[in-house]
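Q: My labmate handed me this sequence with no annotations at all. I'd like to see what the chain might look like in three dimensions before we decide whether it's worth expressing. Could you predict it?
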Amino acid sequence: MLPSLRKPGAVTGDWKSVNLGTMFGKIIKRAGLVAWPRAWHNLRSSCQTELTELFPSHVVTAWLGNSERIAEKHYLQVLDTHFDKAVSADCMRPCMQNGDGTVGKAQHTERADNKKAPDLQGLAASYAGSRNRQLGDEGFEPTTSTV
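A: Here is what I predict for the chain of 147 residues:
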């Protein structure tokens, strides 16, 4: 334990009366560093995030005394290392795999039955004459009784 905390806690006999935030801020300033806002919250957040990387969330929340909902809402962070891992080759490999397990663009394969695809050009030519036909007064839809 830090020596500066022993005296106040020992004098009062009550560690709850020791203002750790103020003392922590003084220790940081004496070290020549700049204290960041909400230091205890940020330390707890970092700790919760790091422990959750190693242990299941329900275990970490039991250790730290909060719920998984509170941890997700207030403490867990998305780190740069998460993004680095997400775009790494090992992580992206399953996303880029073809059905045959190879990586990369899918190779063009011949149809299993080795049949040619239908000749769509010839099919389109046979309908070319129908484009010039005029529609009657009724149009495409069948006539219905008036309502």
